[in-house]
């Protein structure tokens, strides 16, 4: 029950909707440019994860291979480092108040996803 409350508050006040829309727009742009479709899929994964982060976690896919690692390097150079930095800055800012600490932690959970998204999947926590 607490995860539902945190997710609804995150969606409204924590920036979850804004993050999901931003990642969704990035995914659409990646889908239009056919070569970047794998990055679009990763961006959609980030949109869904940033929309409802509490009670979910990111795990490595066992089937991820060398291609996803190489694509992740391109992702880090092009977009991953500034996305991760943005989540870190937002997390620190939210942790300055007691009420914002859960939302700051949610931003910190999004850092590895934003930095290295390919070859990972979002799963529910037990």
UniProtKB/TrEMBL annotation:
First and last residue of the signal peptide: none
Pfam family, one: YccF
Keywords of this entry: Membrane, Transmembrane, Transmembrane helix
Chain ranges passing through the membrane: 7-25, 31-52, 64-82, 88-108
Cellular component terms (Gene Ontology): plasma membrane
Domain Inner membrane component: 5-56, 71-120
InterPro entries per UniProt: Inner_membrane_protein (IPR052937), UCP028777 (IPR031308), YccF (IPR005185)
Superkingdom field: Bacteria
UniProt keyword annotation of Phosphoprotein present: no
Entry keyword annotation includes Glycoprotein: no
NCBIfam families: PRK11770.1-2
Name of this chain's protein: Inner membrane component domain-containing protein
